Amino acid sequence: MRPENGKKTPISSLGEFRLIEHLTRWAGTNHSSTVKGVGDDAAVIRHGHRHTVVTTDLLLEGIHFNLVYTPLKHLGYKAVVVNLSDVYAMNAVPGQVTVSLGISGKFFVEDMEELYEGVKLACEQYGVDLVGGDVSASMTGLIISVTAVGESEPEKLVYRSGARPGDLICVSGDMGAAYLGLQVLEREKRLYEADRSVQPKLEGYDYVLQRQLRPEARRDVVEFFRKEKLVPNAMIDISDGLSSDLLHICHRSEVGCRLYVDRIPVHDEARKVAEEFSMEPETVALNGGEDYELLFTLPGAQGEKIIGVPGITVLGEIISEKDEKWLITSGGNRVPLTAQGWNQIR
Amino acid sequence: MRPENGKKTPISSLGEFRLIEHLTRWAGTNHSSTVKGVGDDAAVIRHGHRHTVVTTDLLLEGIHFNLVYTPLKHLGYKAVVVNLSDVYAMNAVPGQVTVSLGISGKFFVEDMEELYEGVKLACEQYGVDLVGGDVSASMTGLIISVTAVGESEPEKLVYRSGARPGDLICVSGDMGAAYLGLQVLEREKRLYEADRSVQPKLEGYDYVLQRQLRPEARRDVVEFFRKEKLVPNAMIDISDGLSSDLLHICHRSEVGCRLYVDRIPVHDEARKVAEEFSMEPETVALNGGEDYELLFTLPGAQGEKIIGVPGITVLGEIISEKDEKWLITSGGNRVPLTAQGWNQIR
């Protein structure tokens, strides 16, 4: 009883980001307790003198994960961690998660126990409680919906929109390894599918595989900020890719940026694997995604507190010209920074 | 690379409720801000002097809804409302929702606009803000994940576990109509599939169809409680079915109950439709589900505040013997109350 397809607009013509912007453009912050609505890593709600932070993520088999090479325990761990990462990206501290599952007929109780072992491990590791969720049947495949709740003093919350000209662009950890781990897994899957007697060769890929299958959220960075009494001007976690996520900050903050390619941190193993796949390590680092590192901007005057801190890299600076988003190559040339991030609806 | 099925346990051997209990039995309330975890309509979190309530629901095409007869706008409305219903069932006031979608290739931008019209209408109707969510591709069908956030003064929150012997068992509205609406839609679908020239006959089924396709959450009942300074001892919203949800209250409260069959409110149209389908109206009212009415218990001494209030019915009483859950028939016989609610994983 639905209308047949006349001249409807394919979803691919908009893409994921523009579709959600298009669909939610009416959404305001009308309720007295709503501090921040659509468009950041998490929503912010005022309940008393501390703010509540809420974020949610939907993980779908065949789209966000492939069970051929993803152990269910790792998947449960990752499903929780990527949501905690969104809470940390607000400079908030997560306290609770809910996990809801849609399960198709191919799964057994033991499979779900394995998945929940990963959920439990992540809860223990990050000191959060599992407080809800349910399970229901699904027609095809596994569906995981996770919501994370955190809190913060209002004045410590950090949005995507706070970047100011002169800010240093900083990042934790290194980039590109998770994407390369996925390439290794996909390659071994193809070889196995072509010849079932082939054993997957995964030795020597420890770091990139771990980054793909069992990422961690940067709780330590948020704790470092609190210890050093640092509050970034803007922050986002890198899920789509460094370039795409930096462009989100620029867009929301109405500023431009200069990003120095040769400063982008890439792990030695990732560099080696990129070359094995005939990819430029820096291109992978810019566009790979799923790093779950924190990308943040700090006033230049606070640079001394961050420069030289192990595991934190200054990548460039924010500039006032909002139409100027530049990548500065090692030769000193500038090329426009574009989002080639992992956009799932192409 | 997953183990082959040796002697694994089918999920059907446990069922939805026992599976989620089984998987989450390790989950405690360790974090200092966790007030209430797994096992109620919503989780409760302490952030300052007001408590935050969080609930989440996953709706899957082919399991929870059928797009052959469900207009997308109604679906968007219902997806929000069923979550708000969970917040009201805590005697809390919802303020925000997030909506995440998984969309397969058969959908177009206009379809999602229609769905979001329903989301918007529900947000306006209930005075809540849409504050987040995202969209991604899905392999098959439509997936809707909604999270609702509400708040309450700590002393007004009502759990499933608070029922005490001597409490009156009360319910808002009437039961069974949503289930009957679904039967009508399924019948017309079968007729249409057998002969595509048949036009669906939906006249005369207005009430049961509306209860199925566009349910409302009982905001008015929670407002009535606040106005009358009433705080129920226990409360749940009826999603699984009156009998199943009353058993949830008894189980969590460690009490028994007596439920008088001839007091169960059934709408005239629902009674007529039940007879058309050769069903006992009371059986449908007990087991149908998706009513989204509030089932609550009040100390007997407060009975005078509730008896005679239009739209509220006293169905029976809570008793101390926790192994005695009785249905009292119109002839005065007693039969054990059992959950035949709509359990999706059988």
Describe the structure.
The structure is a homodimer of 346-residue chains. By secondary structure, chain A is α+β, with helices and mostly antiparallel strands. Chain A folds into two domains: 123 residues, PurM-like, N-terminal domain (60s Ribosomal Protein L30, Chain: A, 2-Layer Sandwich); 177 residues, PurM-like C-terminal domain (Phosphoribosyl-aminoimidazole Synthetase, Chain A, domain 2), CATH 3.90.650.10. Chain A is built from ten helices and 14 strands. The C terminus of chain A is likely disordered. Chains A and B meet through α1, β2, β3, β4 and α3 of A and α1, β2, β3, β4 and α3 of B.
Task: Provide a compact summary of the structure.
Chain A has helices spanning 16-23, 72-88, 109-126, 177-194, 206-213, 219-227, 242-253, 268-276, 281-287, 303-306, and strands at residues 34-36, 43-47, 50-60, 93-103, 129-132, 135-137, 143-152, 168-172, 234-237, 256-260, 294-298, 312-319, 325-328, 334-336.
